[in-house]
# Entry
Amino acid sequence: MNTGHDPDIPGLLRPSGPEVDCDIAVIGAGMGGATLAYALRDSGARVLVVERGDFLPREAANWSPHAVFTEKRYRNAEHWYDAGTGRRFQPGVHYYVGGNTKVFGATLPRFREADFGPVRHAEGLSRAWPFPYAELEPYYAEAERIYRVHGTAGQDPTEPWRSGGFPYPAVPHEPAVAALADALRAQGLAPFDLPTGIDLRPDGACVRCATCDGFPCLLGAKSDADVCALRPALASGNVSLLTRTTVTGLRTDPPGRRVTVAAARHDGTELRIRADRYVLACGAVNTAALLLRSRNGRHEGLANSSGQVGRNYMVHNSTFLVAVDPRHPSRTVFQKTLGLNDWYLANGAHGPLGNVQTLGKLGPATARGLHPRLPTPLLEFLTGHSVDLYLTSEDLPAPDNRVTVDPSGAIRVGWRPVNLAPHRELVRRTARMMRRAGYPLISARRMGIDVTSHQCGTAVAGADPATSVVDPTCKAHDLNNLWIADSSWFPSSAAVNPGLTIAANALRVAEKGGLR
Ligand SMILES: Cc1cc2nc3c(=O)[nH]c(=O)nc-3n(C[C@H](O)[C@H](O)[C@H](O)COP(=O)(O)OP(=O)(O)OC[C@H]3O[C@@H](n4cnc5c(N)ncnc54)[C@H](O)[C@@H]3O)c2cc1C
Ligand code: SF4
# Structure
């Protein structure tokens, strides 16, 4: 490659000319891209990971609620637009080595086996995946090892079958969460230990602080894609990384069957990246936007003969529920250890409702976004006496829920939530459950278009090129040398956190897609 190496980080390149070449170019260094690079580290190919962001600095502000939530210090994405209202908004997207996992909550469940089939919901059908759970299971197991997942098998009634136990024992509940788990069991429910990626191994650095979910880890103890996948990949000597390099378009050969160049900007300078094979892992919205910006005269957007690029945008229907017991102060520090799937599968007239899990402990700065008008002392009192929950229900694929790029190049997101009635029922049941468990005051706030954490579905996978963008191995139907390894390819969103599924599939793409 026509580049110079950075002596401090193995594999970190600084381009010394207008062109870089490699065998496989992976665009995006988040959960999908970094895990794919990890899978290819011993493949013999020269792998180049291209990332628009830089390394997220380790600094005291990592753990400052004011810096992270009030000043939004690490929110570095450009504004997007709500296609319905025209409103400009700042998406919850983070452009760094490690992508959104630098700030994620590190809850790493597998999808349920039923999620891979067609699922009838109250408001429509969730599509079947083009391969069964059994195909992904060995990759889930490997991803759990890579991301040091701590958990307990056999507690969750909806848990899919596993070829082995969790790599590490579950993160123990703190007293208030353990008491809540007991109270839920007394109601006949089956709370379980959340599968979690934090480093609590015997020599692990995690101190179980209150500033994990939504914050970067000052100690590097969170199982993010930078720490667990990209750094080991770079250390192999076969993987290189270009940071501060945004890919702006993909160019093809005249028949439009092969990508020949990725046009990019590195620190404001034009750069051409030549590779035999290209993998997109920019996150579901940015991957769709990049394909749409790469018009080749044949279709509107590259890999888009189906017209499906950008469509079927899904993001989960989600609610933050704060349950307050004004009589007892909460002393919980690391709260995110409990899950509940009792209403995950079809449940009478309402159909499947979704997942309930504890959030990272809210404080006044983190709760401010939910209740902008409440005075700080009141927020302090409420979050000082609360258990905080995150509720997610499946968002169904709808062709008109759609990412587009306007003539100025800005991203527009059209999203009308689908399947809201079951989500409301999930909120109702959870509120009732929490009141019975001793929390008489409940506040519930549903998340809107700005909360883009669980985005997926914008370049759906399937066997039929007329209705899908990539084939079951995540190779573009229209092109011979382009794959996708983030969550764009998800045919449905399921209702649990997507990170482990993105990672497991990236490992699968490396092997089944013939990349190694
Ligand atoms: C606050 C928060 C909490 C979360 N908690 C959880 C959780 O507990 N569990 C869970 O499973 N998931 C969680 N998520 C979601 C999870 O982080 C994402 O699902 C996951 O990171 C998506 O992986 P990805 O590879 O698709 O995209 P990302 O991880 O976002 O990576 C995409 C990368 O591509 C880069 N990029 C984008 N465009 C370009 C371009 N044109 N050129 C070059 N580079 C580009 C970006 O900078 C980024 O680094 C959370 C997310 C957030 C924001
Ligand atoms: S809880 Fe552990 S992994 Fe999370 S930020 Fe704190 S030290 Fe890091």
Q: What stands out?
A: The pocket of flavin-adenine dinucleotide (ligand 1) is lined by residues 27-33, 50-53, 92, 95-96, 99-101, 103-108, 214, 246-247, 281-283, 286, 290, 453-454, 486-487, 497-499, 502 (CB under 6 Å).
